[in-house]
Amino acid sequence: MTMNRETLINTILAIAFVAVPVIAMGMNEPFIITLATKVAIFAMAGVGLNLVLGFGGLVSFGHAAFFGIGGYAAGILASHALNYEPIMESPFLIEGTTQMIVIWIVALIVSALVALAIGAITLRTSGVYFIMITLAFAQMIYYFAISWPAYGGEDGLSIYVRNGFPGLNTLDPISFFALCAVMLGIVMLFSAILIRSRFGLALQGARQNPQRMTAVGIAPFRIRLVAFVISAMITALAGALYADLNRFVSPTMLSWHMSGEIMIFVILGGVGRLFGPLAGAALYIILEHLLGSVWEFWQLPLGVLLLIVVLFARGGLVGVLAGERKHA
Amino acid sequence: MPDAILSLSHITKQFGSLLASDDVTLDLRPGEIHALIGPNGAGKSTLIKQIAGEIKSDSGDIHFNGQQINELDAVARSRMGLARTFQVSSLMPEFSVLQNVMLARQSVSGKVFRFFRPVLGDKSLVEPAMAQLERVGLANRAQMRAADISHGERRQLEMAVALALEPKAFLLDEPMAGMGPEGSKRLTGFLDSLRTQAPILLVEHDMDAVFALADRISVLVYGRIIATGTVDEIRGNEDVKRAYLGEEA
Amino acid sequence: MFSLFLEQLLNSLQSGLMLFLMASGLTLVFGVMGLINLAHGSLYMVGAFACAAVAAWTGSFWLGLVASLMAAALAGVLVEMFIIRRLYNRDHLDQVLATFALILVFSEGTRWIFGSFPLFLSVPDILTGTVILPGALEYPIFRLAIIIAGLLVAVGLFLLIGKTRLGVRIRAGEADRGMIAALGVNIDRLYTVVFALGAALAGLAGAFVGTTQSVQVGMGEPVLILAFVVIVIGGIGSIKGALIGSLLVGFTDTMGRFLLPHAFATFLDPSSATAIGSALASMLIYIVMALVLFLRPSGLFGTEA
């Protein structure tokens, strides 16, 4: 099998991504490991968004809603467990938990249900309406989280002890990084398989020409809805990990600014490229760390960079390095 | 008389004050090529859209394959076996020629929501798709991006996609559009052999092709069918000549 | 109780009209140029900051108001000429990203110049104080002035669109973008004018609302998102839809926040009533939006296919 340029870039990125935190561990710089973990989590959120945005062509400006749902799943379940307070007593008992796997399952289920509801309404629209409506629904959830006092409202919710994973000391930075990196790998593998499947062909077809899809007898709406739900679930998983990383969840995770940031990860790295979100998240975190420590208002040059990428370097980092694709 | 595969009865469609389809009745019988002709603005594309299910008629019935399909949308009608091509080629530009046809095969197979097996290696899709490409003469372009092939080749691909659907009837919207004389002759020969696979409702402006291919011709003027008949009957029809305002019929 | 109700009604009218100033510019830009502009909220912010800065510097609110119009319009012109112009033929994703990038630039730039603390705009002397309305309601004169100003702008906008040559070009541009270029209308200039007009309206709204609340970085985005909801409800490209949508949203939001906690208080304890009532109130507009969409997917008066 010949190695094309994109595969080469992807391999280099993967190696660098794993090497950096390992080296940092050797140099006793846990902060860098934390940064790398952040990259992994943001990349995962981006992989979720990329599914509908890059491959599906749907500009969802409300994915922070799912990121936040994942985060709050972690926060709410953990806080109930740590306070020894059940979430619900009747008609049946639901207690909290500090086990990540259970939290992830809850995050996946809740986000899927919310995405199903939101998608069923928003995917009937297209173009600008879709963008505005996904933004509006995410705002709705954001305002709800702010005004619901039980879970901290605007101040957010702390997770005093990081949740547990069998066989792992999750408080150890490199162990938690490894967990996130493996989860990212699984999600990326899943995404790659999905795109190459029949479903992926139909999704990309719906992006390019919905009229033709209809004419061959496949309803774009149903394809997009399934893609939307899957993408929400992936982003929610990232949100749950993020809450555990920071041991904190707040409505900021649900804000439109967060939705914009997730989009930035995808765009900077390259829309519709498998490793795009990883490249984009890494670039963003590096910029935040390097520029941010030098200048408080680092998001201004970030904005300028983003403008330049959008106006002149459409393919993002991976696109620029790897060149044009042969065919989808 | 064999039962019509497709029949329109008293189809009417109005847009504000414009009567685009005026009590249109016509049918498509097995094994035939039924051409639909008429001057520009006659309402041919509106009629095609109503048959395909893209717009809803105000009144009238459409029957396809023994079933009344008024309430079915375009996706459902396509799945029932009505394959339509577009006047302006409607393809997936980033997909290869082969992928475009494979997508149609995927729809026919009914297995669209499959998430794990890679599609490009799936012989059950690739082989029939390649067969269709060979039929239209595009096999050597299989791996090229649809955006990179010539206009004529795109019309061929449009045809291949329709073939891949294994339809019960074809709805062809100006397949000769933009083709030079060579391409038109080849396509005419191709369509001639196609009628045995499934009947064709052919909307065309190219009169040579129409007269060479059509078993019956219906003439649409201002939304109304003014005449339906064989090539000779239409050729000799005074109303038709007048409708074309002296255009060579 | 009546005076409380009247007060909320007037507040609804005020918030609806201010929202109309935002939404009308946004819907015009979308209708005429086919462009979605997330940076519209930044222009609102620019207007507020310009007003506050000039008012503080000169001591005159009125000069501040003029400054807000000019600054917002100027910012609009510059942004249109150098960035927005390149986006007309791009897909919506590019437009969203580029204008989001502009938000970052405007927000951080403003924070850099003015700092993170809010500025305060004081009401001009002749408009301070309250007036007594039916029901013994003491209502701030300034708010009444804003309502009147908002109504005047609405009338002016309808006249502009309906009765002037510019208005004809705008309406023609909304109907068929390609055609008006072919007819010899200077597209570049028309687009810049439309964008600047929208920007000025946003800046004006920013100055007005900044006076009643405060002037701070990020003040534009919540209003922007509400304006989106308005456009979705009212239909893209329709000024009439923007007005009706704005009033609907303004009333739903203000009256909802006022009435819902009260309604829940009839059968719940006060703290739960407030909690659930306000949470539901904050979601109410979006629920209304979802309902409208369900019934009319292209908005109440949508012109865009």
UniProtKB/TrEMBL annotation, chain C:
Localization in the cell: Cell membrane
Keywords: Amino-acid transport, Cell membrane, Membrane, Transmembrane, Transmembrane helix, Transport
GO process annotations (BP): amino acid transport
Keyword Membrane: yes
Molecular function via GO: transmembrane transporter activity
One of the Pfam families matching this protein, by short name: BPD_transp_2
A GO CC annotation given for this chain: plasma membrane
TM spans (from-to): 12-36, 43-59, 65-84, 96-121, 141-161, 190-211, 223-251, 272-295
Highest taxon, organism lineage: Bacteria
Matching CDD domains: TM_PBP1_LivH_like
Lipid bilayer topology: Multi-pass membrane protein
Similarity comment: family membership: Belongs to the binding-protein-dependent transport system permease family. LivHM subfamily.
Name of the protein in its database record: ABC transporter permease
